[in-house]
Amino acid sequence: MKHATDCPPLSSPPPSARNRWIYFFACFEKDFVWEKEGESDFFFRKVLAHSGSINKPGTLAWKVALALLFQRFLVIACMWNGTRTIGMVSKVLTPIPFIVIFVTLIYSATLPGAGQGLKEYFSPDWNALGKSDVWIDAIGQLFFGLSLAMGIMQVSSPKT
Q1: What pLDDT digit, counting tens, does each position of 48-105 carry?
Q2: Are the CB atoms for 3 and 11 separated by under 8 Å?
């Protein structure tokens, strides 16, 4: 049985957020369709119904259209009665990320090799701290972790 973590990386250009959900749910099918035809062909031809040319109109991507309509319906339904409805929705949706993280933690702890992975994770290689590549990667992670990468990366980068 395949897992959602076995999904191949998305090809460029990256899809929009609403299309990622369709790609995400396709990961749970028994056999991955893109294993035979490639992930790029699957995404552009099957999910987006892309015609391949600007001169040739494609068909309507029903999965994308229905997902978008469902999303719009949910947003309008949540905002219908103002703050009262938004408050009720927030009470339900706020703990969901923590529940998902907890379930993922329990699930990943039951996978084969989890003990070895935790052992590797919690026993660091202290000699790696002497390498400059580690520090460069850490600084890059710091920029993105602090959400400063929007403009500070262009300011800090060398002009080429």
Answers
A1: 777 777 787 777 778 788 888 998 998 888 888 777 888 888 888 889 999 999 999 9
A2: no
d(CA 113, CA 129): 26
Answer whether 10's CB lies under 8 Å from 23's CB. yes
Instruction: Say if CB 29 and CB 9 are below 8 A apart.
Output: no
Q: Which of 37, 35, 12, 33 is nearest to 22 (CA)?
A: 33
Give me 22's structure tokens.
């369709």
Q: Which residue has the tokens 């026993």?
A: 123
Residues of the domain holding 133: 128-156
Co-location of 43 and 109 in the same domain: no
What does the alpha-carbon distance between residue 140 and residue 2 come to, in Å, rounded to a whole number? 33
Shared domain check, 87 and 72: no
